[in-house]
Amino acid sequence: MECYAFAAKCFNKHEQRRIVMKILVMGAGAVGNYFGARLQQAGEDIIFCARGENLSVLCEKGLEIQSPKGDVAIRVKATGDPRELAPYDLILFCVKAYDTEAAAQAIKGCLNPGGAVLTLQNGVESEARLCEILGKDSVMGGNARVGAEVVEPGKVLHRTNGVIEFGEIDGRDTARARKLAEMFQRAGIFGELSMRLSTIRWEKLLGNAAFNPVTALTHRNIGDVVDASAERAALDAARFGTRQAARIRSVERRDRARWAASRDQDAVRRDGVFAA
C-alpha cells in the first residue's frame, strides 16, 4: 500500500535548485514521524514506512504534529513496503528493538551508493546486528533526544527536546556525516555529530536504565523521582550496574582513543564543533 501523489507539492522552485535528499523513515512511530515531518518541512523528500491503521491514516489524511516548536499538518508519502520507492540516500531506522532483524532484512539493498542507515533505536546492540545484515559501511548510529508519543494513528504529541546525536560507527569524520549534520541543522533537529558514538549511546542507556523502570514502577515523573530519597537509591543502583557494563566493554576509553587519533578535530559540535 502506498500514497505519494502529494510529493511534488512539498517543494517550491527555489528548494528544488539544491540537491534534495531522499529519506525513508523506517518505523513511522513517534520518533520517526517527528523527525520525518521536520525534515519534510525543510524540503527533503521523505517516505514514511508504516503498517496497519497508522499507514492508512498517513495515506488518506497525512501527518499531524502538535509541538511547542510549532504544529505541523502535512500530506506525506507512505508505504508498507520499503522496496517500493527505493533507493534512498538515507534511512532513519526507528523500529523497536524486537523488530530490528525483520526491518533490516526488509531494507536490504534499498540504499543508493554511499547512502546510510542511521539507527535511532534505544540500546547499544542494534548497530552490530545491522552491520551484519547490511554491511558496516552502510550503518551509522545515533540517539533520538525527543519526548513524543503517538496519541492516535497519524497524530503525534511532541513535548520536549527534538534533536539527533549521531556519528559514524568507527568514529571517523566523514563527508557523509557532515552532509547529514548540515541537513539536520536546516531542519532544526541537529544535536551533535560525535566521534564518541559508543559513549553517547551508553550515556543515553544509562539514563533509560535508571529512570524508565523506576518511573514506571512508582507511577511518578522524573522530577518527582529525583527529589525522593528512596527512588534516588534505586536510580543510583541502576546507574551503577549500567556503568559497570560499559566499563567492561571499555567504551569510553576506546572512544577517547579514536578521538585523540583523529587528524581533523574540527568537525561539527552542538554549535559547530565536536564535543570533547
Quick overview:
This protein is of the alpha/beta class and 276 residues long. The protein contains ten helices and eleven strands.
Distance N terminus to C terminus?
46 Å
- Specify the CATH class of the largest domain: Alpha Beta
Radius of gyration (Å): 19 Å
**Structural class label:** alpha/beta
Instruction: Give the low-pLDDT segments.
Output: 1-16, 257-276
Instruction: Write down how many β-strands occur, each being a DSSP E stretch of 2 or more residues.
Output: 11
Query: Which descriptor suits the 3D outline?
Result: globular
Number of domains: 2
For CATH, the homologous superfamily of the largest domain is named as NAD(P)-binding Rossmann-like Domain
Strand content: 25-35%
Count of alpha/pi helices: 10
Q: Describe the sheet with the most strands.
A: 11 strands, mixed
Mean pLDDT: 80
CATH architecture of the largest domain, please? 3-Layer(aba) Sandwich
CATH topology call of the largest domain = Rossmann fold
Order of helices and strands: EHEHEHEEEEHEHEEHEHHHH
List the topology elements.
Layout: E1 2-3, H1 13-16, E2 22-26, H2 30-41, E3 45-49, H3 52-60, E4 63-66, E5 72-74, E6 77-79, E7 88-93, H4 100-107, E8 111-119, H5 126-134, E9 139-152, E10 155-168, H6 175-187, E11 190-193, H7 197-218, H8 222-227, H9 229-248, H10 251-261
Parallel strand pairs: 2-3, 2-7, 3-6, 4-10, 7-8, 8-9, 10-11
Antiparallel strand pairs: 1-6, 4-5, 9-10
